[in-house]
Amino acid sequence: MRIETDLKLGFTDVMIRPKRSTLNSRSLVSLDREFSFLHSKYKWSGVPIMAANMDTVGTFEMATALINHKLFTAIHKHYSLQQWKEFMLTADENMTNYIAVSTGIGTADSKKLAAIFNQHPELKFICIDVANGYSEHFANFVKKTREKYPDKIIMAGNVVTGEMVEELLLAGADMIKVGIGPGSVCTTRVKTGVGYPQLSAIIECADAAHGLGGQIVSDGGCKIPGDVAKAFGGGADFVMLGGMFAGHAESGGKTIEINGEKFKQFYGMSSETAMNKHVGGVADYRASEGKTVEIPYRGAVENTVQDILGGLRSTCTYVGAIRLKELTKRTTFIRVQEQHNQVFSK
């Protein structure tokens, strides 16, 4: 046993200090980024915000809405081959640039991934997703996937420390998903005691990834647009959102009416709800590590997207960053004990 005493920070522990700026309008700020990837030759451009690969978020309907803003969607892994076929027949011609095929690391997952790519070889992105990215089996799966798909862009996770980021990049991943426990419907920290404050995880993992020419995706912990800005300020290349994109018309999950008001169900992918739905229940050797909530229905995701992007542009004007790429270079975090005045908060 050992204890690390260095301070680790989450989004609520800091604010971004404003800097003198020559920008006189938020409209001058460009949120587009361009990335080249470590192993594939593909160059990507767009706004580097992602819908999470949860079946209550990463839907075909969400991808269809988000592509209008050049935002990315990690499609959840529970769609059938027929559903993929039907979606790809009607999808925007640029859709393959803004979606990833998600997979677990089991034998059945591997076979289904192969079947999807056999059916749609034009797809470019793979999201290899597990709750615990520290297993040897996971790194080996990433390596085998790279060998099988040498030209695809591989996103893999989740991890929270630099040494594992480096191992997964060397194993063949292009982007590493960062985050253990910060999600709004994740109970990993409660059930296991394991986790890492998200902002510190971003800062440390970005440093490791960028040293090797890879990218990181901050996954989890964002509750408000300001958190998205802090994630980018800390060095994240992409920011993945679950709860912020849940509850919309384009989100998955049941629509429920309570006392005349509409709600949508949102749950973690390690929750009892998800395991009952997809794998026949919680196995007797494990515990649920997610919760199920009902979110007041939010309508079309368009308004939420505008709120997030508008907030991010405003952050850039406060620190004088004319491009999103410049935000991390112009970010100074200050430690705080209070974030905002909550006197009229519900």
Strand fraction: 15-25%
Tell me the Rg in angstroms: 19 Å
Mean pLDDT rating: 93
Name the poorly predicted regions. Answer: none
First and last CA, distance = 43 Å
Q: Say how many strands there are.
A: 15
Please count the helical segments: 10
**Share of helical residues:** 25-40%
The secondary-structure element order is EEEEHEHEHEHEHEHHEHEEEHEHE
Q: What strand line-up does the widest sheet have? A: 4-5-6-7-8-9-10-11
Q: Name the overall outline.
A: globular
Largest sheet: 8 strands, parallel, barrel
Structural class: alpha/beta
Question: In words, what does this structure look like?
Answer:
The protein contains ten helices and 15 strands. The chain is globular, with a radius of gyration of 19 Å. The protein is 31% helix and 19% strand. The chain has helices at residues 60-66, 81-90, 107-119, 136-148, 162-171, 188-192, 198-212, 225-233, 272-278, 302-319; strands at 14-16, 33-36, 43-46, 49-51, 72-75, 99-103, 125-129, 153-159, 175-178, 215-219, 238-241, 255-258, 261-267, 292-296, 333-335. The strands form four sheets. The chain has an eight-stranded parallel beta barrel, surrounded by six helices. It has a three-stranded antiparallel β-sheet with strand order 12-13-14. A two-stranded antiparallel ribbon has the order 1-15. The protein starts with 13 loop residues before the first strand and ends in an 11-residue tail after the last strand. It is of the alpha/beta class and 346 residues long. The model has no long low-confidence stretch (mean pLDDT 93). Strand 8 (153-159), helix 5 (162-171) and strand 9 (175-178) form a beta-alpha-beta unit. The longest helix is centred in the C-terminal third of the chain and has 18 residues, at 302-319.
